[in-house]
Amino acid sequence: MDLSPASRDAMTLPAPMRLLTGSLVIALLLNLLPWSDWALRAHPDFLLLVLLYWVAHEPRTMGQGWGFFLGLIMDVANSVLLGQHALAYVAAVFLVQLLRVRILQLTVFEQALHIAAVLFLSQTIGVLLNLSMGSDFPGWGLLLAPLLGAILWPLVNWLAKLPRFRRRFGQVLR
Amino acid sequence: MSGYQEPFFTRGPSPLARLTFFSLVAIAIMIADHRFQALSWVRLGISVVLNPIEQALGMPATAARRIGNYFTAQTELVTENRALQNRVLELTALGQQARLIQAERLHVDALAVAVDAANRLDSRGIIAEIIRDARNPYARKVILNKGTKDGVTAGVVVIDGDGVVGQVTAVGLLSAEVTLSTEKDQSIPVMVMRDGPGAELGSSSGVGSRVGLRAVAVGNGRDGTIDVPFIPLGADIQNGDALVTSGIDGTYPAGLAVATVIQVEKNPAFPFAKVVAQPATAPNHHRFVKVLLRAPAETAGSASASSASQSAYPQVDVGVGDKKSTSSSTAALKPAASGSSSARRDPRRNN
Fold first, then answer.
1. Contacts of A78 in chain B (CB under 8 A)
2. Predicted TM-score of the model (pTM)
């Protein structure tokens, strides 16, 4: 039976909640590393990347509510204006929900290009918000972040689909 | 289209409706946070949970740095030690002179005592370590490893060996966020101090330096420079002038080094001169700073009481106290407090 990738996701059992929350927590911790100077501007947003992966592959569990909640956590952790990450994450999640069926038809590397665009748009929202509040543009190093995020997309795919994760969490292999 | 479709009966609102809803909520939160600071308790709550995790995450970096320091070459340490010893000698000399001036001024009259006590650098302070930069690429902030648990409050001043580093703008239980003096729009009231010959204007200064023009040093969001706006074209300011805190705001104690003037551009086309200064401190090069804690009560009276009781000049303070009032220290300092507030309102003081 030849099924489209999007429908194949629907045929598998939903990923267990432990896997979802566990991966999100690890991504959050990566974001909370003491980034500084140029790395602060250029480091990819691991949390958003993992969130988008689950939005694409587990659309019934992961949605904009999660984006909003995780965005608020990032705002507090970075002690920036409350709500700016929330808005950017919700917008990114929306875009992936919109493009989901299309994205999943593509190979992982083609998906990464789409993700780069989504990450870039999401980051642009944050930049515009900060500029509108009178901050200076922090530099073009910011452009690196969505690109690095997109480069990591295949890695996230590979990690999340590692059979041993799925087996350990009681997932039926397809 | 392929055979797959979303479930027949979609539950809940459409993605677009959700996007609208969440965006509106996010914007409402932003306004609440920006305009009214209404959500600081949410911030504090979540930061208390996150703090230990962040500290744990920072550990490998901290450990690596400490190990690096451990293996610092001996020659480097010897050089540094020598430099520090020279510095100590210099500062001791300055301290002696300052003590002399202090004594002179304290004997002048009660008003002098008040001004002095209110502006004197409170010796209460704690040493804190800079653990990391704030993760906000739009701001120039660093995080210290001391918080409300150690008595740090928002608004207190942070200095290092060279001068003012910045001001604490947010405190958690175990950490505090310091906004550097180079942060955009971060302002410090300063006065111009000039060393050298022919600079013996002020009657009270015997250190060979004089205090002049008052100004405000405003950060511009870039490393290495601070702006000094609104200096009239005819003002007496030149390259090499030191900017020290003037103390008129009641936040920064008087006399702390802030910056050195490096560029003065007087163009008659503009009403004000363009003055650029170089900050006295480079927080990237230091790990330890001193947080100048505020006296427990916010009133000027108790502030001067605490600084008087811990001051380095006990004989002078006791002398004045005996002369001016009863043995009760609070009663003794009441006139001092009122004197200081009236003196603070007079902008021409010290000129």
1. 134-136
2. 0.73
